[in-house]
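Technical note accompanying the year-one report. For the benefit of new consortium partners, we illustrate the data format agreed upon in the data management plan: each record pairs a sequence with a structure-token string. No post-processing was applied to the example shown here.
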Amino acid sequence: MIRSELVQKIADENPHLYQRDVERIVDTVFVQIIDAMANGDRVELRGFGAFSVKKRDARIGRNPRTGESVKVDEKHVPFFKTGKLLRDRLNGK
């Protein structure tokens, strides 16, 4: 599902809301999650999962084309861990 499909589904299920208001709500939720993660915070949505940031240390990598060693800088990457309810629904429990 992409963002526009999510907005459309929410708008269809809530006919009292305007489409532009639903778009603003969805955008606000995503921006808040992004801002929290940018600050290093963890975002937990009960039953769905938790978003967090993991740190990857600097290392020496290898260019697959030339085989040359390359320095890879430290970086932070987003990480998602599914919640129990989501995991159970995916596994048919």
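Partners are asked to follow this layout when depositing records. The longest helix spans residues 19-38.
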